[in-house]
């Protein structure tokens, strides 16, 4: 009788723990669903860059406003997820965060033509850039996947820029993506997902090179500024 009571007590506690964890997962799912929807809005808004140079600045401004809304969502996640359980629940926001890294990096490149650092992206989302054993932070691999997604989008932009007669943009994209490609080659990538994304970068580089080469043989590349030279 004593053993049965002990076993019942132990498994009752197990069930209580499982119920609490399930409740926490539901809260996390709800928050992530809201924040993920914001990222999808940003993706749609930034599509204008492929059709109109004039629409780029307003699109970036609108994306910035959406990032502020996402920041509030990440604050909820930070409050909800126990400090010691970041990687236990990481899959709930991993792909969503990779998309935000892509969107923020793309927006900053469109605005300033520079690489958004890991720290900058984390700051936009209002989370820590320091990878610790405890606490909510921006995982470095999520950031890197976001950069690779940005390269794919820029290779598409290089093609569409030519279609609308902007021959300077592909050169700018080519220089930037080549530098990023060189940076990635310094890494010893062991994560399968990240490695596959990096393998796809060579196709983005090839597409951009073909655009620049085509402009070159057609004599359409903008001449360098003599003053700048």
The run of helices and strands is: HHHHHHH
Q: What low-confidence regions span 5 or more consecutive residues with pLDDT below 50?
A: none
End-to-end distance:
91 Å
**Largest β-sheet summary:** none
What Rg, in angstroms, do the CA atoms define? 22 Å
The CATH architecture of the domain at 1-97 comes to Up-down Bundle
CATH topology of the domain at 1-97: Methane Monooxygenase Hydroxylase, Chain G, domain 1
Topology of helices and strands:
Elements: H1 2-46, H2 56-80, H3 94-112, H4 118-125, H5 140-163, H6 168-184, H7 192-217
Helix pairs in contact: 1-2, 1-3, 2-3, 3-4, 3-5, 5-6, 5-7, 6-7
Notes on the protein architecture:
- The structure is a single chain.
- With 229 residues, this protein is mainly alpha-helical.
- Helix content is 72%, strand content 0%.
- Helix 1 packs parallel to helix 3 (94-112).
- The longest helix is centred in the N-terminal third of the chain and has 45 residues, at 2-46.
